[in-house]
Structures are given as structure tokens and as C-alpha cells.
Amino acid sequence: MNSPEPSKISPSSTAGIGESEYLSLRLGTEEYIIGILQVQEIRSYEEPTRMVNAPMFVKGVINLRGVIVPIVDMRLKLGLPDAEYNDFTVVIVLRVHGTVIGVVVDAVSDVVSVRADTIKPAPQFQTMVDSRFITGLVTQGERTLIVMNIQALLDPSELGMNH
After folding, report:
1. Which residues contact 57 (CB under 8 A, 6 or more apart)?
2. Closest CA to 82 of 128, 38, 48, 124
3. Could you tell me which residue ranges the CheW-like domain spans (predicted)?
């Protein structure tokens, strides 16, 4: 059996063989990336409805076409300084662990293709961001991108949610 030519494997994708696509986003001065396959949509920030007894980093919930979606402020979740919400502030709607969750970020930049073998382990410094939430680092030209482990970061037990 002849193997298909690479150009015919995934004509709609810009990622090459062994590459995955990630959405780059900004939190403060740092650029992070998350797997594009978990992203459902990107929407402008709207003030969510507050929930009593929710963890500090859960801003509240929004009704997204009949689905109640918790909204997590990624800066607060990661222990970073509070953000000023502005015109660039967006909510990335993700599907994680079978649950739809919105995350507030300072801005989204672009979609980048990353080869798995270019992801370097993150140094284990005593940083503000918990190392469980970071998969590694990728350097692309002048950019250093921090690969987020969105599965660990948005685990229902981390969010104080009953699953």
C-alpha cells in the first residue's frame, strides 16, 4: 500500500508532520500557549454573574447558548498580579475534562505550530506559577512561549467544582 503524500494527509492544517497547533495568549508580560484542539471559541470579556462560595479566581458564570460556563481569571489562578480588564481582554472558551470552561486572558496573539521535540522542560525555579501547570518552554525566534498544561490547570478539583 502506498503511503499518502504529506500534502494530502491534512490539507486544511498548517501544522506539518509531528507538529501541533497552539493558541498563543498573553498574561502580563509573558506569552503562553495552549493546545488549539481544546479551544471552542474566543469572545470578548463580559462581566459574569458572581457565584457565592466560588474560589477567588472564578469570576462567575456566563450563559453561553444555554450552557452555564464558569469563568476563570487565569492571572488569579496562576497567582499573578491582578489584571486591568480592557478592550484586549478576552475569554477563551475551552473544553477540558468534558466540561466547558472560560478563561480570562489579557490578549490572544496567534496560532503557532510547535514540534513536540522542540518543547524543553521548564526549569524548576521557585516561581509564582505552580510547575504542575507548565509543560515546558518553546523558543521561536525572539519569542519564548510557555506551554500550559491546561488539563492540570483546569482540573475540576483545582477549580473547587464537583464533577
Report:
1. 72, 73, 76, 77
2. 128
3. 19-159
